[in-house]
Amino acid sequence: MEQTYGAVMIIIFGLVGLFFSWWRAKLRMTAKQEQAIIETFPDCIDLFIAALRAGYSPAQGINFLGQHAPGILRPNFIAASRRIDEGERFIDAIRLLHSEIGAVSQSMCDVLISGDRLGIPVENLLFQLGNEARLNRRRRAETEARQLPIRLSLPLVMCILPSFVILIIVPTIAGTLSQLHISV
């Protein structure tokens, strides 16, 4: 009876542990995907500006991004381009694009919606937005570079320092103690 109870408890705890490890891995993958989107979105803004400067309309620019955007964002732009081609209003397609990509696309989508509603040129606004996005990406990279020594301090302390003590300090102390002649 007690062995079955113990086996059942082990199985239950194993399943709970498996669930939490799966959940943590899923959260980690989601965070990595969001980080990749944040890192690549300034490139999408620059590509969209290039398309506008080449004479494309904003709808054609979305189609251009569907063909040339970084891989993680390409399916979203393809879906938005398909919606526009199927007759959905540009504003509605951009709103759905924003909901698919997330908060990082808020400014670009707002500029495109305002440009479509008011008929204002969006190229200069997107250029400023692209500059701001690149500066934010650079700041994040600098912050990560400043955090690198902190992350590397644990391996330094746990691996290199003990080997230094074992290879340098211990033989020195052993040699010194062997040369000492203690008389009582």
Describe this structure in words.
With 184 residues, the protein is mainly α. It has a domain at 33-148. The chain is 85% helix and 0% strand. It contains 6 helices and no strands. The N and C termini lie far apart (66 Å). The relative contact order is 0.07. The model has no long low-confidence stretch (mean pLDDT 90). It is found in: Cell membrane.
List the keywords.
6 helices, single chain, transmembrane, mainly alpha, 0% strand, 184 residues, membrane, cell membrane, transmembrane helix, 85% helix
Rounded to the nearest angstrom, the distance between the terminal CA atoms is: 66 Å
Helix amount, in percent? over 70%
The ordered H/E elements are HHHHHH
The helix/strand class is: mainly alpha
pLDDT below 50 for ≥5 consecutive residues: which ranges? Answer: none
Largest sheet: none
Give the tally of β-strands: 0
Strand content: under 5%
InterPro entries: T2SS_GspF_dom (IPR018076)
Keywords: Cell membrane, Membrane, Transmembrane, Transmembrane helix
Pfam families: T2SSF (PF00482)
GO cellular component, one term: plasma membrane
